[in-house]
Design brief:
Largest sheet: 4 strands, mixed
CATH class of the largest domain: Mainly Beta
CATH architecture of the largest domain: Sandwich
Number of helices: 4
Number of strands: 8
Strand content: 25-35%
Distance between the termini: 61 Å
Structural class: alpha+beta
CATH topology of the largest domain: Immunoglobulin-like
Length: about 200
Amino acid sequence: MRVIGTFIRELIKEWWGLMSCAAFTFFGIYVAASNKNNTWIVAGSAVLAAAMLFVAFFRTWKRQYDERTEFEAELNKQADIQGTITVISAPFSPYGDRQPPTEIRIAFDCVNFGKRSCEISKFDIILPESPFLKVHTCSLRPPKRVGSEQALRFDMSYLINDIPPEQMACMSLRVVLIDSVGTRYEQPKTTFVPSVNQFPKT
């Protein structure tokens, strides 16, 4: 409720300033020159006031958006994520004689050595030699906040279609962390570990 109250106060302040702008002066000059009746003047004033309210909405939102973006950029600019990311393939074949997808498990073991915190919201799995999709983006819900000198440790699974683990093992696979303002952290080293499991014979 406090956020809504702040927004309304800023909106009214912005709208009040626009209501005394030159647009109403020119409107008054036009009305006087064209001899319009009272009904037309009231309707025209209402339309102009509504237009100014729309402009006030946008300018208030834009100002608060810019302040938030600037704050987040300042918050994240000195984050420094380093460590290791281990990708383990875990193939399975639920489709009989069809090409099976490859399930990979990704284990993150990183530390923020920067002086600022950051919020990791997603990561890219990059397969540059893939004949199909070369970049797989996985979002984190909720995002993971990492303070200065704090560790980032978690693991999760992801399914990649059309590429068998044998072919994936020959690719220069990389995982890149991305924060909520779009900063990419490419310092962590990615290691691929092929699964020892074999596909069932069909």
